[in-house]
Structure formats: structure tokens, C-alpha cells
Specification:
The structure holds two protein chains of two kinds. Chain A is α/β, with parallel strands linked by helices. A six-stranded mixed beta sheet of chain A has the order 6-7-8-3-9-10, with helices on both faces. Chain A has a four-stranded antiparallel beta sheet with strand order 2-1-4-5, with helices on one face. The radius of gyration of chain A is 18 Å and the shape is globular. Chain B is mostly helical. In chain B, helix 1 packs across helix 6 and helix 4 packs parallel to helix 8. The chains are: A alpha/beta, B mainly alpha. Chains A and B meet through helix 1, helix 2 and helix 3 of A and helix 1 and helix 5 of B.
Chain lengths: ~240, ~220
């Protein structure tokens, strides 16, 4: 598949974000220009405090930029009202968090079906699809378990299934392997990579994980609120190939 | 070409009822504590009012010695009826006020505890109104539960206390209909108070930014 020709799912144009901390203004993002291609597996790297999380919130339409524009599927996020934003978060983007963020009072299947309930699917449809998704992540037999009864890796797999609920175009993963051990982390990465290639889902992930870099199509390095450099997969082989 | 972004649908109440019921059932202990605030306040109010109802019911049937007995206990007959005095009313209002403040406190705590959950809901496509509805519905359940249990407790204690004070006449002339009315208005008061108490916390919750869910600290 030639991904170079895909249109950009997310496009950032001169995005800045300024936070007010008491009397000080903190510039978290200082003008970011970037386009993310459809179906690519993109990793965002950067030390803490680099503006990585802020950038993440921008891409995920979770926060509005101070200036500049964020386009998701060529739609300016700033122009959307609350209903449209909710629709976008529900249908277009699937979120995966470092701390899983499953709803603790709900079982695995209830967690997976929640976005479909929000999307207005009928009960038969969402139960059916929810079970299919749990099968996909290999947890069909544990559908009635609460998050507290699942291991970290299993919880994250439920979260991946939940992120896929409404067939999003983008999956936004914030340090998805951060709270997992090596092997379970690898499982999650393989799963994400699989989704990216099989379903043409764009995966955008913040990470420190070298294993993650190896499957990435591109890696973006953030430093001090700016994009430091962007590496294509081909260059990556050389720079981090020996590390893993 | 279809519009790239559509509008999110508003969830039907049936779904919200299901989700809120579930969420309350799982946090049963926590809900019971909040409910208890209401139960106790309503019990006090129901106790006061139903006591007078019982007296009013007995009075026409009471012989002279029982009437003297009742008056000797300090109950005042005003216009041939027993009723609440200003002191009773002020006590009732105060207890309900304290109760509302207690509910606001408990619900604000609940919102803080559920920061992440609310943020996650929003990331998954929940509208602000959904979050408000969840909290409002939970508070209606709690109000209803606290109201009914409080009214039943108050009426029961009032009945027992008169049973001890003036004997079986208290049961013999027990005013069913009046008691039922007391139960109804006490329960509705509880639901109302519960709603008043939850409005501010629910608005705080609904305005929560979804980015909260992305923050990594627990």
C-alpha cells in the first residue's frame, strides 16, 4: 500500500498553546506544523514537559489551541460545536490511555459497548459487535469480568477493543505500554500494528518504548514545544535498529 | 458528499437510567451513606408531623382522662386540632437545610472521585447533558430511597412512641390515609432536596474537560 499518497487525517497548522500558571504564561506549544497521513503508524517521542501531552490533546480534539488550526479529516476542530465534537470523539477517534481508564463499575463487555451506546446502536448490534471485538483482542471468555478482575495487559486489550468500537479512523494511544510489562507491552504493540495494517487505521501514539519505534512508520520528536525532527521508517532502522 | 462531521445523538433516557442504576448499585455503600443523610432528616420531619396526625386521630375518641393525659404531656390544642408550632417548623427547616448541605458535600466528593470516569465518558462521546443526567438520576434514586425509608422510619417511631405513652388507642385510631399523605409529601420533599443538592455538583461534573482522562496521575 502506498501511504505517501493518502490524504492527511490530522493536520496541524501553526498550532500554539499557552497555559496560564498563576501570573506566568507557559508556552506549551510554539507553532507546530504537521500532517499525519492516513493509515500510518506514527509515534511521538519527547521528554516530559516537551509539550507532548498538549500536542496529544490537540490531535484528539480534547483541547483547543490558543492560536493556529487543527484539522481532523480536513475539518477545522475549532468550528465544531459541542455535539459535533462529541460525535468526533465517539466515531472518528479511539482513545487508549496509559492508565487504561476503563470504567471500573462496568464489565469488559459493558466497557467495550459504551461508545456504541453513545453512538445510538441497537442493543443486539452492540452486544454482537462488542463480543466480536473482545474476540479480536482474545478476551471473549472474560466478557463479564470487571476491570479489577483483569490483569494490566487484559485491561489494556479491553481498552483497545473499546477504542475500536465505532470503527474510528484514528487511534490515539498515550503511552499504551507505559504500565505494562515487556511481553504484554509487546502484545499490545503487535495488536496495534496489526490494526494499522489490516484495517488501515491511523495509529498515533506517544511512547518511550523502543519496541514501539520499530513498528512505527514515522517518529516525531518533540522538544520544547516544537517539532525537533521527523524520522521515516527507513532512517529509523539505522538509528535505533541496533538498540532492540 | 456527506458532511464529514455529524452531530452526536442525545442518549434516550432508558439508556441513562440503565447506566446510572448500574453505577449506583455498584457503589452501593457510598450511595447508602448519602441516602442516610436524607433518611435521617426526613425521619425527623415525618416523626414530628405524623405524631400530630396520630394525636388528631385519637382526640375525638379519647375519654376525659386520656385527653387530660395528652394535654399533660405538653401538646397544645389550637382550634380543636394539634399541629406544628413555629418551633417545630424551624427545627424541620433547619434539619432539611443541614441535609442539603450534606448532600452537596457528598456529591462534590463523588464528582471528585469520578473525575476520570467522567473524563473517559466524554472521550467516548458523552455529551454534557449525559453527565448531568447520570448525576441527577442517581440523586433521584437516592432521594426516593432516603425519602421513603425516612418517612417510614419517622412514622414508625412516632407510632411506637405514642403506643408507649398512651397505649393501644394509638394503633386503634391510626390514620392510614393521613399517614399515606405524610409518606408521599415527605418522599417528594426528599427527592426535591436531593435534586437541589446535586445541581451544582452535576454542573461541575458536566463542565469537566475530557483531557482530564489523559492525565496519568491517579
Amino acid at each position: 500500500m502506498n501511504r505517501q499518497n493518502g490524504h492527511s487525517v490530522v493536520r496541524l497548522s501553526e498550532v500554539t498553546k499557552v497555559f496560564k500558571m498563576g501570573d506566568n504564561l507557559v508556552e506549551a506549544l510554539k507553532g507546530v506544523n504537521f500532517a499525519i497521513r492516513e493509515g500510518e503508524y506514527l509515534s511521538i517521542m519527547g521528554p516530559s514537559g516537551s509539550g507532548k501531552s498538549t500536542l496529544f490533546n490537540m490531535i484528539g480534539a480534547l483541547d483547543k489551541p490558543t492560536s493556529g488550526r487543527v484539522f481532523i479529516d480536513e475539518v477545522d476542530v475549532a468550528q465544531l460545536d459541542a455535539y459535533e465534537l462529541a460525535w468526533l470523539r465517539c466515531r472518528k477517534i479511539g482513545y487508549i490511555f496509559q492508565t487504561f481508564n476503563l470504567i471500573h463499575v462496568m464489565t469488559a463487555i459493558e466497557n467495550v459497548t459504551l461508545p456504541m451506546i453513545f453512538a445510538g446502536m441497537s442493543r443486539d448490534d452492540y452486544i454482537h459487535k462488542g463480543m466480536d471485538l473482545l474476540k479480536l483482542v482474545g478476551l471473549a471468555d472474560r466478557y463479564h469480568h470487571k476491570p479489577s478482575e483483569l490483569s494490566g495487559g487484559q485491561q489494556q486489550r479491553v481498552a483497545v477493543a473499546r477504542a475500536l468500537a465505532n470503527d474510528p479512523a484514528i487511534i490515539l494511544a498515550d503511552e499504551p505500554t507505559g504500565n505494562l510489562d515487556l511481553t504484554t507491552g509487546e502484545e499490545i504493540i503487535t495488536l496495534l500494528k496489526h490494526l494499522s495494517t489490516e484495517r488501515n487505521v491511523t495509529i498515533i501514539s506517544a511512547t518511550h518504548d523502543i519496541k514501539m519505534l520499530n513498528v512505527s512508520d514515522r517518529v516525531v520528536w518533540i522538544r520544547d514545544g516544537r517539532i525537533d525532527r521527523v524520522e521515516e521508517r527507513a532512517d529509523l532502522k539505522i538509528s535505533v535498529g541496533e538498540v532492540s | 458528499m456527506p458532511r464529514a462531521v455529524e452531530r452526536q445523538i442525545v442518549l434516550p433516557w432508558s439508556q441513562v437510567v440503565k447506566i446510572s442504576y448500574n453505577s449506583m448499585r455498584v457503589r452501593l455503600f457510598r450511595s447508602i451513606i448519602t441516602t442516610l443523610t436524607l433518611t435521617l432528616a426526613i425521619a425527623f420531619v415525618a416523626f414530628t408531623w405524623s405524631g400530630y396526625e396520630i394525636l388528631n386521630a385519637i382526640w375525638p375518641h379519647a375519654d376525659a382522662s386520656l385527653q387530660d393525659n395528652i394535654l399533660a404531656k405538653g401538646y397544645e390544642l389550637v382550634g380543636g386540632q394539634f399541629g406544628t408550632g413555629p418551633k417545630d417548623r424551624w427545627l424541620a427547616i433547619l434539619s432539611l437545610l443541614v441535609c442539603v448541605v450534606g448532600i452537596v458535600n457528598a456529591q462534590l466528593m463523588a464528582v471528585t472521585e469520578r473525575f476520570r470516569e467522567i473524563g473517559t465518558f466524554k472521550c467516548l462521546g458523552a455529551l454534557d447533558s449525559f453527565v448531568v443526567r447520570i448525576f441527577v438520576l442517581e440523586s433521584v434514586y437516592q432521594g426516593f430511597l432516603g425519602g421513603v425509608s425516612g418517612a417510614v422510619l419517622g412514622i414508625f417511631v412516632a407510632t411506637c412512641s405514642f403506643l408507649i405513652q398512651i397505649g393501644w388507642d394509638a394503633i386503634l385510631y391510626w390514620p392510614f390515609l393521613k399517614m399515606f399523605f405524610t409518606l408521599c409529601w415527605a418522599s417528594s420533599t426528599a427527592v426535591f432536596l436531593s435534586l437541589v443538592g446535586v445541581i451544582y455538583p452535576a454542573l461541575v461534573a458536566s463542565r469537566m474537560q475530557p483531557a482530564i482522562a489523559l492525565r496519568t496521575e491517579e
